[in-house]
Specification:
Elements: H1 5-13, H2 16-21, H3 25-41, H4 51-96, H5 106-137, H6 139-147, H7 150-153, H8 159-182, H9 194-214, H10 223-257, H11 271-304, H12 307-317, H13 331-342, H14 349-365, H15 367-370, H16 374-386, H17 398-408, H18 416-427, H19 446-464, E1 473-481, E2 484-491, H20 496-504, H21 507-513, E3 516-519
Parallel strand pairs: 2-3
Antiparallel strand pairs: 1-2
Helix pairs in contact: 1-3, 1-6, 3-4, 3-9, 4-5, 5-11, 8-9, 8-12, 8-18, 9-10, 10-11, 13-16, 14-16, 14-19, 16-18, 16-19, 17-18, 18-19, 19-20, 19-21
Length: 520
């Protein structure tokens, strides 16, 4: 998968000379798009590079993207005004003939073109400065070397490694982007939700780029949903362009309305130009109404067509054959793979092993009503062993890092749904998190969702019983009653702190099993 980085870098670097000359606006456009795609792809491969290098690269690319963005926005506006003026003039002449008159918005177009041209010249200086900084930093040759190391270029990745780590990571990242896009659904029908529509466009763009990165994992390369998301992005892009014009002209009109005018201020719009700007403003407001209606229709059509459900199904069942494991890995192989991953946080190995023992005691003690299988017990064992591997990055949000590490681990011989169960348990083991809060949850089948809730509930309690990492609690014995389960704790010393934290984490137990857990 890392082979996808060199073409992205070259697409970015090959436009530098053209951007410097600036005789064609497409150079800026292509380089800006390439920089965005590179920025979207780099986080996927972050573990492959040092933190220092990764930080430098992302900062450099972000800087050039900002400079290119300002220049590109001006180019787009200038090109739009030229096209708009040509279209308006042709329509005007068709109706009025060549009588020397001009369309009502012509003065506005000339004024705006003059203003934008001066701004574009200033933006070009910022672009050149950003390019100089980029070249002095040596970031491009540094990335080129890091992306294509001689030793790695000839190394073949084992087939099973492709089948294990990448598909779950791809599914999680794409689903996360999809959820971000769909989170703006309540604002779709609101015509004045300008900020939310702009955010929806950005979310669509990020989803599109993420699908491009992971497209090779799937049989049809996600071509169909990619095209649908691209259309959403394009419609919202046109909508955003209208919003930019509406805001800019409104500011001009409000500013001029409150300022005293002297005779020698030639650069300011005269009364005729102000009237023309009002005509152009009304035109853009009407166009925005039409574009918003088109956006609503297209958005709703995707739900009727089941586009998002189909995408989610593809993430699990639509993989190319080389990204599907050959079979279910045996117990010994799974355990052997989990041990070195657990060692990623060596200072917590004792705690992880103790929590594993307690979690399995809880599993065995509640077996009469949960009816989980021996395979589920293995998954709980793995989740308990790996739930704190994210601790090496610090305590804060370590549960999220643990889940990400489990998702991406190429040596862990588990397919998407079993891997998801383990990752969701690690994700949910602290705070008020639930498996349902993670992007992987809606992708897995209902039976695996139920398992993830059950195993997460047991792990949360077991982790609470070793809250201070002292191994105080030695055993737990479960007594099953109608509507509740009593859990008797046997400890070497006073375990009041551990019991309190276990009670605080028993909320998911009630949700998963429909029984209250009473810790005594």
């Amino acid at each position: 998968m890392i082979r996808r980085l060199p073409p992205l870098l070259e697409a970015f670097a090959q436009e530098i000379d053209g951007v410097r000359v600036s005789d064609d606006i497409e150079y800026i456009h292509r380089m800006r798009v390439a920089s965005r795609r590179l920025r979207a792809a780099l986080p996927v491969f972050r573990p492959c590079f040092s933190q220092k290098s990764y930080g430098r690269w992302m900062a450099s690319i972000a800087g050039i993207t900002r400079a290119l963005g300002e220049a590109r926005d001006a180019d787009v506006q200038i090109a739009f005004l030229q096209k708009y003026n040509k279209k308006q003039l042709a329509a005007w002449k068709k109706r009025h003939g060549d009588d020397g008159s001009e369309p009502p918005a012509a003065l506005a177009v000339r004024y705006l073109l003059s203003d934008l041209s001066s701004h574009r010249a200033r933006h070009q200086q910022r672009v050149l400065s950003a390019l100089d900084s980029l070249e002095k930093s040596g970031v491009v040759p540094e990335m080129r070397e890091a992306f294509c190391p001689p030793a790695a270029s000839d190394r073949r990745i084992p087939r099973q490694a492709l089948a294990y780590g990448i598909p779950t990571l791809a599914a999680a990242r794409i689903e996360s982007r999809l959820l971000a896009l769909l989170s703006y659904e309540p604002w779709v029908n609101h015509p004045d939700a300008v900020a939310e529509h702009h955010a929806t466009r950005i979310a669509a763009k990020k989803l599109r780029y993420t699908m491009e990165i992971y497209g090779p994992v799937y049989r049809r390369g996600l071509a169909k949903p990619h095209a649908r998301v691209r259309m959403i992005q394009e419609i919202l892009g046109d909508l955003h362009d209208c919003d930019v014009w509406i805001d800019a002209i409104t500011r001009i009109l409000l500013k001029e309305r409150s300022r005293f005018r002297s005779a020698n201020e030639e650069k300011r719009p005269d009364t005729a130009t102000l009237g023309s700007l009002k005509v152009f403003l009304r035109d853009r407001e009407k166009e925005r109404i039409l574009l918003h209606r088109r956006f609503v229709r297209y958005w709703e059509s995707q739900f009727r067509a089941g586009t998002w459900d189909e995408l989610r199904s593809t993430l699990v069942t639509g993989r190319r054959q080389r990204f599907v494991p050959a079979g279910i890995a045996p117990v010994a192989e799974v355990r052997a793979a989990a041990e070195p991953i657990a060692a990623m946080a060596p200072e917590l190995l004792t705690h992880e092993r103790h929590v594993t023992r307690l979690a399995l005691m809880l599993f065995d003690g509640t077996r009469p009503f949960h009816h989980l299988t021996a395979r589920d017990r293995l998954l709980l064992e793995c989740a308990a062993m790996l739930h704190d591997i994210g601790w090496k990055g610090g305590r804060r949000k370590h549960h999220e890092r643990s889940a990400r590490a489990i998702i991406a681990a190429e040596t862990l011989p588990l397919d998407i749904e079993e891997r998801a169960v383990i990752a969701l348990a690690a994700f949910s083991h602290r705070g008020r998190r639930s498996p349902e809060d993670h992007p992987l949850y809606p992708l897995i089948a209902p039976r695996y969702q139920e398992r993830s809730l059950a195993l997460s509930a047991l792990l949360r309690v077991a982790d609470g019983l070793d809250y201070e990492h002292l191994g105080t609690v030695q055993e737990v014995h479960c007594i099953i009653s109608t509507g509740f389960v009593s859990c008797d704790v046997i400890a070497e010393t006073d375990a009041a702190v551990e019991k309190d934290h276990a009670r605080g984490k028993a909320d998911l137990f009630l949700k998963a099993f429909g029984r209250e857990l009473v810790i005594r």
